[in-house]
């Protein structure tokens, strides 16, 4: 999608990739609202969505999306901006970033989201962050990975008012931080 200022309101309808295709590639300023993205598949990056622009996701659900490499549901490419509000990510899978992969030199803001039962083979059961990521009022529940059951961080990570529960990893059940002095946690609960 390369139409600047485009708003797509799905009114609760689903886009189903039937485990065969990735669903959207965003290359401009786009808002996606009230859409269910399910069963999408991409061999490389972004099972459901590849973002190369300025993407706002509102009140959407992402379930059973898969990428063989980066971002089971969303891949936020370098030099891109991703904002997410009131959305849910469930049972997405990738090698890195089970639900979302935030690549270097990119920006991601997330407010009011639920990450449940997402998984990655190697790092970041729910989110893999290589750049700048701010999280507010999110729940990370039962996500799994080898490192960083909920979040694997190599960039700058700010977390406020978030809950982490029953996430599993060999290293860092909730957060595995690889960048010294780059993690700020305020008013969060770790069960």
In short:
The chain contains no helices and 24 strands. It has strands spanning 6-9, 14-16, 24-26, 29-33, 36-38, 41-42, 49-51, 54-58, 61-63, 66-67, 74-76, 81-90, 93-96, 100-102, 107-116, 119-123, 127-129, 132-141, 151-153, 156-160, 163-165, 175-177, 183-186, 189-190. Strands 1, 2, 4, 5, 8, 9, 12, 15, 18, 20, 21, 23 and 24 form a 13-stranded parallel sheet that branches. Strands 3-7-11-14-17-19-22 form a 7-stranded parallel sheet, with no helix packed on it.
Structure notes:
With 191 residues, the chain is mainly β. 0% of the residues lie in helices and 53% in strands. The chain has no helices and 24 strands. The chain has strands at residues 6-9, 14-16, 24-26, 29-33, 36-38, 41-42, 49-51, 54-58, 61-63, 66-67, 74-76, 81-90, 93-96, 100-102, 107-116, 119-123, 127-129, 132-141, 151-153, 156-160, 163-165, 175-177, 183-186, 189-190. Strands 1, 2, 4, 5, 8, 9, 12, 15, 18, 20, 21, 23 and 24 form a 13-stranded parallel β-sheet that branches. It is globular. The mean pLDDT is 97.
